[in-house]
Amino acid sequence: MVNLERTYEKMKNIKDCSSKRFIISETSYGIKKRLEFIKGNIEKELITIKDKNKIQILDIGCGTGELLTIPLGNLGIKILGIDIHKPSIQKAKEINPYSNVSFKYASFMKLKEDCKFDFIILSEVLEHLKNPEKALIFIKQHLNPTGYCFITIPNGYGPFEIENRIWKILIKLRIIKIVKQIKNFFNRKSIENIKVNSKKDTLNLNSHHVQFFTIRYFTKLLNNAGLTVQKKRNRAFFAGPFSDKFINKFQHLIILNTRIADKLPSFLASGWMFIVVHKEDNQ
What we know:
Strand order of the largest sheet: 3-2-1-4-5-7-6
Radius of gyration: 20 Å
Helix content: 40-55%
CATH superfamily: Vaccinia Virus protein VP39
Number of domains: 1
Distance between the termini: 66 Å
Structural class: alpha/beta
Order of helices and strands: HHEEHEEHEHHHHEHHE
CATH class: Alpha Beta
Largest sheet: 7 strands, mixed
Oligomer: single chain
CATH topology: Rossmann fold
Strand content: 15-25%
CATH architecture: 3-Layer(aba) Sandwich
Number of strands: 7
Number of helices: 10
């Protein structure tokens, strides 16, 4: 009897450790805010659905799944994460503790035409695509008539993209290398160490932004694809290679950075989160 109790406690501890591993802490990028936005809205819809076993979520460009796909696993519904970066998918499979969550190394454009999903997630993907409208047409084709698509994109002319542009210029001028050397000299954490010690959306670091969105441009693409915005929310105010090194040192600044974004006009936010649905015929 004692052995059985010990076995039960061990199994319980393993389960607890597994769930704790995917507790997401907030950062200047609003990664926890993104998770709560998507998960909270899915949960609202699940309340009205009787047979949850038939519900399916597709996460396009899921990466490692560490910050979004896997944390959604405790919803208890089927989730498929797909990505064209093989190392990211391999890691996702290795760390995934949920039987209802699966990962596939594949392009979303090669999914069967009759595959329909109740929820589709397209987070930080469109800005990497040469033809984002083609991807949105795919969403239209594979989203159930009453389904919801969650799309997150950076503001192409907001604080995040501005910081990135400055960062790239400084790298070309070799100034960043000098800054790193000074930081290492004073035994502080280098920029590389900060990256290694943090959870990552993807292991694919060679996929750069080729699209720079405005709200007007994005809604035009949606309209052309037969989709429309049902809900929009700003994600974070400051984000990028400079501000995150300061903001992420102070918990109160992290919280303030994401909360103040909700009060700002859209053009001042670093990124946006959308709930997208099928456009009605009369729209």
